[in-house]
Specification:
Layout (H helix, E strand, L loop, with lengths): L3 H13 L9 E5 L2 H11 L11 E4 L4 E5 L4 H10 L7 E10 L9 E10 L17 H13 L4 E9 L8 H10 L3 E3 L2 H10 L4 E9 L10 H29 L9
Parallel strand pairs: 1-3, 1-4, 4-8, 5-6, 6-7
Antiparallel strand pairs: 2-3, 4-7, 5-8
Length: 257
Amino acid sequence: MLDKLEIAKDWLPRYTGMPLEQFGENVLLTNFSNYVENFADRFNVDIYGEKKPMQAATNSDGLTIINFGIGSPNAATIMDLLSAYQPKGVLFLGKCGGLKDSSEIGHFILPIAAIRGEGTSDSYFPSEVPALPSFKLHKFVSEKIIEKGFDYRTGVIHTTNRRVWEHDKPFLEHLKATTCIGIDMETATIFVVGHYNEISRGALLLVSDVPVTPDGVKTEESDEEVTKEWAEQHLEIGISSMTEISKRGEEIQHFRY
């Protein structure tokens, strides 16, 4: 297999266990297995990929959810594999660390851009190319957030390939200098690789910790509390947003720079 499309069509079912024809026209991406489980329970559908690297499920409205794992290489992989059938829109439901006083735990963030600090995206475009979402997709999401009575923040996310950095004071100072609102490991990659593959994409991030303060570093206990308190609303906004896009039948155009 020398053709990228041919490889993607073979590997997307291979990684998820779900037949290609069962993927929906819109996609929710996450790196939490409980989001996929909650989605499947809500719509009474099967989860594919139990012993695969990724798990996936699709409801009757043609909305697919995929747990692709953690980190920028996995984010790039799933955005490449989704080129197998070119979904109309992809929304990433992830968590991030808040870097501002205004970024409190439980807040939602719709990133206007992301800093490419992960390195993976350098394989797709030169460093000058910004990591941007599809703004029309974010418009749908913002409408749903307000409609459901929640608030959200906008700003730039710093995406890093480092998982354990909270102890690194020079890196913390660098983060402050960038004036970013939050930090994660996937957003910039999803934006850049989505652009590369001409897939409309966005991200709705949930602030799960405030790592710039000593007592704000995420722990297993604190993460469980965040999941218990806000994960259901996070998933609900994602489902409503991408379902609404599909029902309206509006296209989220992809424009090349």
